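Support case: zinc ion complex. Customer-provided input:
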Amino acid sequence: MTKLVKSRKAFACQECKAPVNKGDSYARKTRTIGNPRRQTVENRAGIPTIIEHGFSYTAKLCEKCAGSF
Ligand SMILES: [Zn+2]
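Agent response - structure generated as follows:
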């Protein structure tokens, strides 16, 4: 269930690029790219380096897009 919050400033929906005005409802959605939990250690030039295989970020979506998830 997506919780809608009131926007305190205008921005563009990250899905459809529609403008979300101040005071409009929008939804925050955590998006994951790849697999952030998967990490491997590789030896790069003699230095053990942690390689991450993904990351997550919070997308801000308009009410219409939030309903389609
Ligand atoms: Zn949208």
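The mean pLDDT is 92.

Case will auto-close in a few days if no follow-up is received.
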